[in-house]
Amino acid sequence: MLAARMMLSGAASQIGWILFGFGTIFVWGFALQADFSGWRFRAGSVAQTAGQAVGCVQTHFTEGGSETRRGTPIYENHYRYMIAGQEVEGVSYAEGRCVTGGTVTVEYLLAEPAVSRIAGMRRRPLSPLAGLVLVLPATGLIMVITALVKGRRSVWLLREGLPAEGRLIDKTPTRMRVNHRVVYRMTFEYTALSGARRATVRTHQPERFEDEPRKLLLYDPGDLDKAQLLLSFPRTIALDGGGQPVAHGSLAFLLLPALVILGNAWYVYRNWIAGP
Question: Which domain holds residue 51?
């Protein structure tokens, strides 16, 4: 539980889970409906044949529109065509175009004749631009993974690191701000087994590191460049009377990861495993 708190309770991790969880809603609703197959229908890899339209259905997707005007509906067009004496059925999507019958021009892949589309239409309801919604969950996922890696390194230092006292020797403002406060890069010098070394920390609360002349830190005896001040660990981590790290506080930090994981697992099970 202490390790879980180190890797999941930080602000960056919690924000990452929020972005990832909220973003996956758009992934399921939009990104998976985007047509990214256009590159496969390049010149030289496709052939055309005459097909027969057999009807269309209006989807719940639209394009364009505004708060006062409804967008143009996207239609699901069904068709069939013949390849090597065998009938193949297909579905194509188009904005504002519903083909209920008649002859249509079908484009199909020479390498996979069953992969096709009506010329001028696409194979999924939405255009590739719908894939831009992936930016939000991707950003959240990167934040979560970064926090996990950083937290795992901190857990290792708690378990295997050697203690030392660091002395503040430099405080330099950066161009970053958090909550309208300047972020400082603070450098501490400490004495390791092999001599003097330095450790740095970035913070928008420099006063936490300046109230005492020396601060406790942990360093990796196998890699002296890896050191971390105890104050830079999550605030829910403290030392007991015997100098051992302990965690305190509620388990609320597990709520967001649990909701995101369970919510996505339920959606996958409901739509792909159990079926409609």
Answer: 40-125
Res 243: pLDDT: 66
* Rounded Cα gap, residues 30 and 256, in angstroms: 23
Q: Is the dihedral of CA 99, 100, 105, 107 positive or negative?
A: positive
In a domain, 146, yes or no: yes
Closest CA to 201 of 176, 228, 220, 178: 228
Read off the pLDDT of residues 86-123 as tens digits, 9 standing for 90 and up: 999 999 999 999 999 999 999 999 999 999 999 999 99
Q: H or E stretch including 178?
A: strand 162-178
Same domain, 203 and 252: yes
pLDDT the model gives residue 239:
67
> Which run of H or E residues covers position 18?
helix 11-29
Q: At a CB cut-off of 8 Å and minimum separation 6, what does 88 contact? A: 80, 81, 82, 108, 113, 114, 116
Classify residue 11: in a domain, yes or no: yes
Which tokens in the block code for residue 112? Answer: 């996979």
Residue 50 lies in a domain: yes
Same domain? 117 vs 204: no
**In the chain, how many domains are there?**
2
- Quote the DSSP letter at residue 208: G
**Same domain? 64 vs 173:** no
Which token pair is 170? 């430099």
- Give the Cα separation of 9 and 156 in Å (integer): 17
Query: Which among 133, 145, 126, 113 has a CA at the least distance from the CA of 48?
Result: 113
232 occurs within a structural domain = yes
